[in-house]
Protein backbone atom coordinates (compact mmCIF):
# COMPACT_ATOMS: atom_id res chain seq x y z
CA UNK A 1 0.00 0.00 0.00
CA UNK A 2 1.36 3.42 -0.90
CA UNK A 3 1.26 6.55 1.19
CA UNK A 4 -0.50 9.61 -0.19
CA UNK A 5 1.15 12.93 0.53
CA UNK A 6 -1.08 15.89 1.28
CA UNK A 7 -0.29 19.57 1.07
CA UNK A 8 0.74 20.88 4.53
CA UNK A 9 -1.70 23.79 4.14
CA UNK A 10 -4.58 21.33 3.64
CA UNK A 11 -4.54 20.35 7.31
CA UNK A 12 -7.07 22.22 9.45
CA UNK A 13 -6.58 22.94 13.13
CA UNK A 14 -10.19 23.10 14.32
CA UNK A 15 -11.73 20.49 12.01
CA UNK A 16 -11.35 16.77 11.65
CA UNK A 17 -8.91 16.01 8.84
CA UNK A 18 -10.35 13.06 6.90
CA UNK A 19 -8.67 11.64 3.80
CA UNK A 20 -11.27 12.86 1.30
CA UNK A 21 -11.14 16.40 2.68
CA UNK A 22 -7.35 16.46 2.71
CA UNK A 23 -7.25 15.17 -0.86
CA UNK A 24 -9.77 17.76 -2.04
CA UNK A 25 -7.99 20.65 -0.31
CA UNK A 26 -4.68 19.45 -1.73
CA UNK A 27 -6.12 19.51 -5.26
CA UNK A 28 -7.57 22.98 -4.69
CA UNK A 29 -4.29 24.33 -3.33
CA UNK A 30 -2.24 22.77 -6.15
CA UNK A 31 -4.41 24.40 -8.79
CA UNK A 32 -4.29 27.73 -6.93
CA UNK A 33 -0.49 27.65 -6.72
CA UNK A 34 -0.42 27.81 -10.51
CA UNK A 35 -2.57 30.97 -10.53
CA UNK A 36 -5.14 32.88 -8.51
CA UNK A 37 -8.46 31.95 -9.98
CA UNK A 38 -12.21 31.63 -9.66
CA UNK A 39 -14.06 28.61 -8.30
CA UNK A 40 -14.97 27.55 -11.84
CA UNK A 41 -11.32 27.63 -13.00
CA UNK A 42 -10.23 25.66 -9.93
CA UNK A 43 -12.91 23.07 -10.77
CA UNK A 44 -11.69 22.72 -14.32
CA UNK A 45 -8.09 22.29 -13.16
CA UNK A 46 -8.80 19.93 -10.27
CA UNK A 47 -11.79 17.93 -11.54
CA UNK A 48 -13.80 18.56 -8.36
CA UNK A 49 -17.42 19.68 -8.19
CA UNK A 50 -18.26 23.34 -7.63
CA UNK A 51 -19.92 22.75 -4.24
CA UNK A 52 -16.95 20.71 -2.97
CA UNK A 53 -14.50 23.42 -4.01
CA UNK A 54 -16.57 26.20 -2.46
CA UNK A 55 -16.90 24.28 0.81
CA UNK A 56 -13.15 23.72 1.09
CA UNK A 57 -12.29 27.26 0.01
CA UNK A 58 -14.47 28.59 2.83
CA UNK A 59 -12.72 26.29 5.32
CA UNK A 60 -9.33 27.46 4.03
CA UNK A 61 -10.51 31.08 4.20
CA UNK A 62 -11.42 30.63 7.90
CA UNK A 63 -7.86 29.48 8.60
CA UNK A 64 -6.48 32.34 6.47
CA UNK A 65 -4.73 30.08 3.97
CA UNK A 66 -6.67 31.64 1.07
CA UNK A 67 -8.41 34.95 0.61
CA UNK A 68 -11.36 35.99 -1.48
CA UNK A 69 -10.97 39.00 -3.75
CA UNK A 70 -13.73 41.04 -5.29
CA UNK A 71 -17.05 42.35 -4.07
CA UNK A 72 -19.23 40.50 -6.58
CA UNK A 73 -19.39 36.97 -7.88
CA UNK A 74 -17.48 35.27 -9.35
CA UNK A 75 -14.91 35.82 -6.63
CA UNK A 76 -11.23 35.45 -7.33
CA UNK A 77 -9.33 33.35 -4.80
CA UNK A 78 -5.62 33.56 -3.99
CA UNK A 79 -3.21 32.08 -1.47
CA UNK A 80 -2.18 34.26 1.47
CA UNK A 81 1.10 32.50 2.26
CA UNK A 82 0.28 32.33 5.97
CA UNK A 83 -0.69 28.67 6.04
CA UNK A 84 2.80 27.25 5.82
CA UNK A 85 4.10 29.86 8.24
CA UNK A 86 1.40 28.89 10.75
CA UNK A 87 2.24 25.20 10.42
CA UNK A 88 5.97 25.67 10.98
CA UNK A 89 5.40 27.96 13.97
CA UNK A 90 3.07 25.42 15.55
CA UNK A 91 5.66 22.67 15.15
CA UNK A 92 8.37 24.91 16.61
CA UNK A 93 10.41 24.88 13.42
CA UNK A 94 12.26 27.76 11.86
CA UNK A 95 12.45 28.41 8.14
CA UNK A 96 15.88 30.02 8.49
CA UNK A 97 18.59 27.95 10.09
What is the structure about, briefly put?
This protein has helices at 19-34, 39-46, 50-62, 82-90; strands spanning 66-69, 76-79.
Topology of this structure?
Layout lengths: L18 H16 L4 H8 L3 H13 L3 E4 L6 E4 L2 H9 L7
Helix pairs in contact: 1-2, 1-3
How would you characterize the overall build of this protein?
The protein has 97 residues and is mainly alpha-helical. The chain has one domain (15-90): Winged helix-like DNA-binding domain superfamily/Winged helix DNA-binding domain (Arc Repressor Mutant, subunit A), CATH 1.10.10.10. 47% of the residues lie in helices and 8% in strands. The protein has a two-stranded antiparallel sheet with strand order 1-2. β1 (66-69) and β2 form a beta hairpin. The longest helix is centred in the N-terminal third of the chain and has 16 residues, at 19-34. Residues 93-97 have low confidence and may be disordered.
- Quote the distance from N terminus to C terminus: 35 Å
CATH C-level class is Mainly Alpha
Count of DSSP-assigned helices: 4
User: What topology, given as strand order, has the largest sheet?
Assistant: 1-2
The percent range for helix content is: 40-55%
Low-confidence stretches: 93-97
Task: Assign the CATH topology.
Answer: Arc Repressor Mutant, subunit A
| Rg computed from alpha carbons, rounded to a whole number of angstroms | 14 Å
Largest sheet: 2 strands, antiparallel
The CATH architecture can be given as Orthogonal Bundle
- Tally of separate domains: 1
Shape: globular
The secondary-structure class comes to: mainly alpha
